[in-house]
Structure formats: structure tokens, C-alpha cells
Model the fold of this input.
Amino acid sequence: MEQRILYNKKLCMTELETEHTVYQRNNYFEAVEGRVNSSFIYIYQGSVSISTVGQRLAAGANSLLYIPEGLRYNAVWQGDPQIEYYAFHIISKTFDLANNDRYEIQRIDPLSTTQTKEIFKSIFDLFATGERISKVRAIGMYYHFYADALPHLQAVPPVQYNPSLLEAIAYIEQHFAENFDVITLAAKACISESRLYHLFREELHTTPIKFRNDIRVERAAQALRIGNASMDEIAVKHGFHSTVYFREIFKSVTGMTPSEYRAAARATASSI
Done:
């Protein structure tokens, strides 16, 4: 009697990227647009406050974080005297539509241990050799870690925001560089100005103007990291009426001036 049994499982990634980052300063701001990847981050030194639409998470040294795919967020890092973390990024070509679970950004306390810290370092060190066998061993170690982490990930139903609020958010994201007022924004969302303020406070814990300024700063931070445009050019392109105002708002969000941020970003890039 012949018998053939097959089992299969779609792998959860198309590429595993490992990262070790050290900021030789006591604060840093990072803005990330929604990407088709998810990340595990283990903080060695420093702390971080991560903000996304309707959610804020804080974590200190020796903490394991999970950031789900497709999330646009900004992170304010602080350290004394420096910031250091290891990260795994699972890069996909498309969203994993076969996975019905959707997770929130979260701190995984049961795995925020010395053992996890050593696993992250070991996987990074294996990748750093550049050898194929070492990378295969690293991927095996990652899947073992992922199997341990998966039971601790908290699945959440999608947040159902008020439709008028979604209209306002969409308008801000498309027109963030324009100097429209809250009355105009409320009209676009077909609600009163007071109702718009209430929805932003109740569901996003912010105000319409701060929400727009945060997006302006996120986009400006990306321009400061990857380009050589002047401060005046970046200020105008991202909706700030003057370089002085740009500097003021940017520092209020990130804790750094635009010049300090650009210098820190370049110093970090050159050290990698």
C-alpha cells in the first residue's frame, strides 16, 4: 500500500532585512510612510515614543516592539547618551491578504528579555558575514523566534472611524502643503467646525491643525534625509510660510531643528 502525505505553508516573507542602528546623540526623529513590511525592533539603549493615527506607544531599553505592515508612523527616540536598536524587517511585494489576523503596533513584554536580545544580535551577526550558509542559519533562527513571538501578538479588529473624519483625513493628506483653514476642512467633510474638532479630539486625540503639521513635518523629514534641497525650498514645498516657522514647528514635533535633523541623519547614514 502506497501513501503520500503533503503539508505546505506559505512563507511569511519575501525578504528578511536585518538592521543595527546607533544614533550617537540623545534624540532622533524618524518618520515612515505606510510600507508593505512589518518589523520587530529590540531596543538596546534609549527609549522611543511611536505615534500613528489614533495610537501612541512608548517603550524603553530592553523592550521588544512589533510594527505591522502598511503603517504610517513617526517615532521620537531619546537616549542617554545614545540610542541603539536591532530590527528585523519582513519585506513583502504585496500585503499578505491570506493572513486574516491584523495586528496593532505593540510592545511584547513576555519576550523583552536578555535571551531575545542575544537572538537579535546573533541573527544580525550571521547576516553580516555575507556567507550563504550563515544567512540560511539566520533565517532559521528568525523563524524560530517568530514562532515564539506569534502567540503574543495581539490581533485587533480594524478601527471604524467616523466617515466624516476619514474625509477630513484624506483631504489633509492630499492637500497638506496648502494653507486651508478649519472652516474649509469642515466644509469638505460636510460637518460643522465644532463637530470636526470634536471628532479629531475624540478619535485621534489631536486637532486638525496639529494633524496637518505632523504630516508636514513627516514629509519634510524625509526630504531632509534623502535630498539636498535648501531649508527655504523644503519649507515652501511642505506648506510652511517661512523658514523660521518651519524651524519652530519641526522642533516642536521632533525635538530637533531641521538643520540638526539633517546633520544627524547624514551622520547615521555614513556610519552604516
Notes: Strands lie at 15-23, 27-32, 37-45, 47-52, 55-59, 63-67, 73-78, 83-91, 106-107.
